[in-house]
Give the backbone structure.
Amino acid sequence: MIHAELSPEARARLEAMRRNSTISSIVIAFLVVTLILLVLGYFTLTPFFKDTPVIVTYNASIPAEEVIETKKVSTNTQQKPSAPSSSSAKVIAAATTSNLAIPVPEVETLNPSTDFGNGDDFGDGWGSGGDGGGGGGDFGAIPATMRKRCSKEDRLQRLADTGGNEQCEEAVLKALRWMKKTQNPDGSFNGAKKSAMTGLCLLAFLGHCETPLSEEFGDTVLKAMTYLINLSMKNDGKCADNLADKHWCYEHAICVYALAESATFCKQLNIPVPNLDTATQKSGQFLIDNQHRSGGWDYAYDESGNRGGDVSIAGWHIQALKAMKHTGIDFKNLTSCAKRGLKYLEDKQDTNGGFGYTSKKPLHGYYALTGVGVLCFQMWDKASSSEVRKGVNYIEKNTKLDWGENNDLYAHYYEAQAMMNRGGKEWKHYNGLMRDTILKNQAADGTWLGKKGHGAGQTYHTALCTLMLEVYYRFLPGTGGGH
């Protein structure tokens, strides 16, 4: 038998092929095992590297002012706001609001009220008031000048420097505590004209630098803000309890004033109140857009009639415009609206310096609206104007404050602000008439009752007098030229 035998060269090539095959098999096996290990490692190790949410806890030893408590306040228009707790700091979360447009009913505007000189121009016995806010010289810059109302020591110093005393501070605190005690569960104040009363009371709290962060009054302030926000959002910017009452323009302007000052405080202090800016913008823009062609504002915001409004209505709106300007919120035509409003007031000033009602003439002998006109010009950087000089001169020569049936807190609250802004001898003279009279007529429970039979009642008069006693630190004196 013949046997085939490989040559040495062929045998060498075969051995090389076997070695290569073995190495390739080992490499492939290694790669497969490595891949399997990587896959297993991925599923095994993923939980160890997965991001997890950070949970923040607070140690009980941390000071209270450093702890932020999450607070949920409903601004849903179908339910009342929940009562916030009395923590010293709050972060507020909102529920979704519903926007329900309620049209303004057509209201026939009859003859103008002839009761203003007695403080009754708001309808149903309502109506004498002040600007209600941080108003004049130091309103807009919380980090600097508003600190003067936010520190008890600074308030007392300002009281001493500007003609007040410690009794003024004590009277204000008594009044604010009465307001807190009598606030309605929904955040409003009073039984009638709740929107306007809530605005005035809220302005009184803000005038003392009480905000949602305040330890004693924070809940009260937050509930009041929430009530006004709900009202604005529900009515598509219209702030009033009864839109069928032609006098609701007063209430709307007061609410806008309060909302705007609230927005300024909360923005500067980083307090997030849901829908506060939205409500302020809606209600403020409505105020601008419904100015009468006369430059004033009329009952029920009637733009078609020939009455053209009156100085009383215009005063609230012009002050609200100033508060709106400080918010940083975008309002269309705000400055031009204010200019038209001041021109309207200019046309109502008589040669003796007094401001009339719908003309240059007073209703009841005394030009009770002079403080309104003077303050509005001061607020809009016209403190040295002839309108202010003549108006201040009229007030100094003619004003009186005899507590009783005929006292007119409407006139005096505006005059207190105007004369404080003026400073100098004019303020010293006026303060001599005002301060002790207001202090001695406060009741033991912290309230004031103004003119006998006035339909506004305790809440209204208490808010006005509180704001009057806050004028010492809400304003920077000496804004008039040469004072």
